[in-house]
Design brief:
The chain is an alpha+beta fold and 319 residues long. It is built from eight helices and 17 strands.
Length: 319
């Protein structure tokens, strides 16, 4: 099987971008080791701290975050980075050409119960001038690379250089090998993922949509749908990339000031780029996610992504 390094050597991407990707992936290998050991390494449980969003942090959240920060700051090609766990951006190397944004450990609520979690990453070209918050606030369409590492039954790496989506599996020698040379999302699906416990808070079009799916072949959609929910965006998106489906984390009525739950810069943008590169679609029910102009590092957003037919249908219901 082709190794990750062999694959990267064949790509026409700039050497500085390849180096940046390799550093991210190396950091994720270290995170994978900590995840695998769990209680044996004393890394499970609450950290007793909260992040900038006021969410309780797990010990592994902090370990994963610091692992990536330390690795990326040593790479001369990285000018700065931003993390879901940091209040503001972190400077790296002044002459670096790239910015890296990441969610160090997506699905933290699953850590202690041994369910799939992952790291999501996004790479942007650094604009001219001194590094500031605005340097990072680029549309998702401006990403030069994005991907995730899924820590599950196997450790999987999935990424895009904007020429399709590829997947690698970590072997017992600690090397990623190409196992999914082409990931493509079918246009139609009969599988959806949503946290149904929030149903009473959804906007009316989402209520209608899920009601139609639950009605199955006797309803207006004329076919039966299956529901899945892992509570880890990495796991949800990976399932969609492998076999299709639609994932929804809609805006709800509990906090009118929040446009959604997921973070545009650390979750929605990189995952939307992957999904679109695999032939799917992604929007916030009103506009395409990759076309949104960010207003802040920790901006939240509603997300619907996956098989085109379903994503576009949900958007149509909101008109």
């Amino acid at each position: 099987m082709q190794t990750l390094n062999q694959y990267l050597q064949q790509q026409t991407a700039p050497a500085e971008l390849i180096s940046t990707l390799q550093t991210i992936i190396s950091g994720c290998k270290t995170i994978s080791q900590n995840v695998r050991l769990g209680a044996l390494a004393g890394v499970l449980g609450e950290a007793g701290t909260g992040n900038v969003q006021g969410e309780a942090q797990k010990k592994l959240d902090l370990i994963a975050n610091q692992t990536l920060i330390d690795a990326l700051r040593q790479n001369p090609n990285v000018a700065g980075l931003a993390s879901e766990e940091e209040d503001t951006f972190v400077t790296a190397n002044e002459s670096g050409k790239y910015l890296v944004l990441f969610d160090p450990l997506d699905g933290s609520s699953n850590i202690d119960v041994n369910i799939s979690i992952g790291t999501i990453f996004s790479v942007l070209a650094k604009p001219e001038g001194s590094l500031k918050t605005e340097s990072f606030l680029q549309k998702g369409s401006e990403q030069v690379a994005a991907g995730y590492v899924l820590y599950g039954v196997q450790t999987l790496l999935v990424f895009t250089l904007k020429r399709g989506v590829v997947g690698f599996t970590l072997n017992k020698q600690g090397e990623f090998v190409l196992t999914h040379p082409t990931l493509a999302i079918p246009e139609q699906t009969a599988e959806f993922a949503i946290n149904a416990s929030n149903q009473r808070h959804w906007e009316a079009p989402v209520q209608q949509y899920i009601g139609e799916l639950l009605a199955g072949k006797d309803g207006v959609r004329g076919k039966n749908y299956n529901m899945r929910w892992v509570a880890s965006m990495v796991a949800e998106v990976h399932r969609i990339l492998v076999r299709g489906g639609v994932f929804l984390y809609p805006k709800d009525g509990r906090d009118p000031n929040k446009a959604g739950k997921l973070r545009l810069m650390y979750e929605a943008n990189p995952m939307s780029l992957l999904v679109e590169q695999a032939g799917g679609a992604a929007n916030n029910v009103r506009e395409e996610i990759l076309s949104i102009c960010p207003t802040g590092l920790h901006q939240r957003i509603a997300v619907v992504l996956g098989s085109k037919e379903e994503v576009e249908y949900v958007k149509e219901l909101h008109k």
